[in-house]
Amino acid sequence: MKKFIPFLALTLVLSVFLAACYGGDNATEENGTSDDAESSAPQELRVIETAEIPSMDTMLASDTVSFSTMNNVMEGLFRLNKDQEAVPALSDGEPEVSEDGLVYTFKIKEDAAWSNGEPVTANDFVFAWQRSLDPDSGSSYGPYLMEGKIKGASEIYNDGAEPSTLGAVAVDEKTLEVTLEKPISFFTSLMAFPTFYPQNQAFVEEQGDQFAANAESLLYNGPFVLENWTGNTAAEWTYAKNENYWDAENVSLEKITFNVVKDPQTAVNSYESGEADITSKLSSALVPQYEGDPNLVSWLEPTIFWIKMNQQNEALANENIRRALALSIDKQSLTDNILNNGSIPANYSVPKEFVQNPETGEDFREGNGDLLEYDPEAAKEFWAQGLAELGTDTVELRYLGGDTDTAKLTDEFIIDQLQTNLEGLTVNLESVPFSVRLERDTSMDYDLQFAGWGPDYLDPISFSDLWITDGGNNHMAYSSEAYDKLLKDAESTLANDPAARFAALQEAERVLLEEDAAIIPVYQRQANILVNEKVDGFTYHFVGPEYSYFPISINE
Amino acid sequence: MWKYLLKRVILMLITLFLIASLTFFLMKLIPGSPFSAASKLSESQLAIMNAKYGLDQPIPIQYANYMINILKGDLGISFQFNNTDVTQLIMNRVGPSATLGLQAMIFGTIFGIFLGVIAALRQNTWLDYGSTLVAVLGKSIPSFVFAAMLQYYIAVKLGLLPVAFWRGWEYSILPTIALSIFPISIAARFMRTEMVEVMGSDYITLARAKGASSFEVAFKHALRNALIPVITVLGPLAVSLMTGSLVVERVFAIPGLGEQFVKSIQVSDYPVIMGTTLLFAALFIFIILVVDILYSIIDPRIRLSGGKN
């Protein structure tokens, strides 16, 4: 790692977007890889994927494998690059934005075409977006990403309004005009999300039920096309280079083979035996044995794990009790000894190295620092005070956790910390599968819950939104007027003043943690992946699709 | 014989119906939402999704609808594999599981019976102890350990066979071995015990007295009788092998039914849980019938109809 520090420093200075540069060796080396596309090595790559592709219909997809695949074989108006910036893709340059920030006018690249030769038109977008707002379509990400953002989306999905009332209009063949409910500063990065990709209406209607059933019943407009994908139970599939792609000359790879491997040790074994070039993310137990390995690529994901405290519980409604719990977990010891995969303690609810102040470029964390740090002595005082207020000397809480090995170890450690530091506290662990935890979250059937969140768009609001009163993900009876007001301001009066909006969201985080101790942040996760040294230009993303393969070239 | 078969088939259908009903209600008792994006959906969005898939209706109505659809041969659509037909989903997955199961069953049974016979014929020699050791190890080493060891030493260290994936016959060798260790040990233990007993019975002494060679005695006279209990245990075992092993499929990255079934329970993918359970149950009941018929072929003393002829 050491010899890359000058590299790293250089990239830091050069890049406008300062945050995303801790990707590790391969990610920082990739400048100029497209120039050595002439390399004599066969331009073929073998990748381990963690799951089958559940859907290739952009409207139905709701998982990262689908999103990643779409990101490589299809394309939207924008794409994320390796610095996590949204850059124009199908959009011919930046869109024209109205003064009030509500109307975006996109010009679509003249040479953008589908794999059947037809041009990509503005109507393709209108069609796809309207389709995903049809309640009968079964789309979940359509309403999730469009309601409250694109004008008319909510009325169409919930009240059966005419699809044509959607604020997305094809002005002419190559001009798309999008009208928003409110100004959205990160709107172009949202356009990189596959749910907003175009679909060829004639093709989709002709295929009917068979659309997206396999590689043949799809149209592509991205750097690659899918081959040998027999449908969503396929455990192996390949990409071939799309010669019709408008930027095909900058794509080096000719072929990529994907294999689904669910066992993390098997993924590493196939890498070790030379049957795969890129593994899936390593499970925490496998990371220590590759520490210092030059082929280990690590990056801090914008994914935070925290403990939600259900304030319907009498004890947890007490702020001193919540604060005592929040201060009594030694997070450093957890990340060092239990996780041991480079994850870092989180004393915050908006991740580190994720979003920056639009004016100064300063990381969100620089402004707010650490909140609710480990402090067992203070915790004991708050605990005593809280117990006195409740008029009791024992508290018993249920703790809802996951059923994976890592989750169980983490939960046991946390419960031990809580019970050791806080006298009179009994915590009972309930380890349940993911879907059960979600349901009990919705019905608020828990006291403490270990949960995590990864963002869907490049904006702090992806996290801040979670805690507004009665918010779709609050589910812990947290309600703060001050917090709600800050969020409301950020979305309305401050929407066109990025710096003030950013400050409001930072203030909101302080209210959530410093004033109310509403959740217990625990750690921010690090991703670790093995990438063969002959692979140049490995590129990962923070939101939506996880990987881009088209910047990759193979050198020997 | 035909009357008996008809009776059995009717009983089988009743059993299947009971299994389907029981599974349906048990499954509805498992908490959890089938929508993977549930945490991101608002309540009204979830309500619309539930209505679309009929999950908002009372459970007895859902049950009636499901049963009617089964009779029409429609197993419904999967949630985790966006709207894919369950029948097709199972069809796509059953191939690798069945292939592996069949291979493991054939290899395991033959090798296991062979080990058992050798052990019985050479009682208390090193052959006997060796075969016992194999059987005990096979039964007591968890399959995830054995599969992982096979993969690590034979594929990664020695590079003799592929590590994982499902691309051709050579890819099935290691998983077949991993899967067959269980039938080997079962068959070997049962076979040895039975052989020892049969070899001590009167008709074997008679056969020897008539001057039959020891090979003829062992394989022509003794083996057939000794097979009965082995077939009793191997029948159901074959079903569980052919419907896929979660562990072996995971370790060798094989796209089979085992992994998919477990996942479908974890994510509350109701139609897939039901479809797979019905398939397993039907196969199981069918194999039990086949085993009963086999008894009468192997041992004429067993009569299927059970009554007077």
TrEMBL record, chain A:
It comes from the Bacteria. One of its GO terms (molecular function) is peptide transmembrane transporter activity. The keyword Transport applies. Residues 86-474 form the Solute-binding protein family domain. GO terms for biological process: peptide transport. GO terms for cellular component: ATP-binding cassette (ABC) transporter complex; outer membrane-bounded periplasmic space. It is found in: Cell envelope. Keywords: Peptide transport, Protein transport, Signal, Transport. Residues 1-27 form the signal peptide. Belongs to the bacterial solute-binding protein 5 family. This is Solute-binding protein family 5 domain-containing protein.
UniProtKB/TrEMBL annotation, chain B:
Belongs to the binding-protein-dependent transport system permease family. It comes from the Bacteria. It holds the Pfam family BPD_transp_1_N. Gene3D superfamilies: MetI-like. Its main location: membrane. One of its GO terms (cellular component) is plasma membrane. It is found in: Cell membrane. It is a multi-pass membrane protein. It comes from Jeotgalibacillus soli. The keyword Ribosomal protein does not apply. The keyword Transport applies. The chain crosses the membrane at residues 9-30, 100-121, 133-153, 173-191, 226-252, 272-298. NCBIfam families: Opp3B. PANTHER family: DIPEPTIDE TRANSPORT SYSTEM PERMEASE PROTEIN DPPB-RELATED (PTHR43163). The lineage of its organism: Bacteria, Bacillati, Bacillota, Bacilli, Bacillales. Keywords: Cell membrane, Membrane, Transmembrane, Transmembrane helix, Transport. Residues 94-295 form the ABC transmembrane type-1 domain. GO terms for biological process: transmembrane transport. This is Peptide ABC transporter permease.
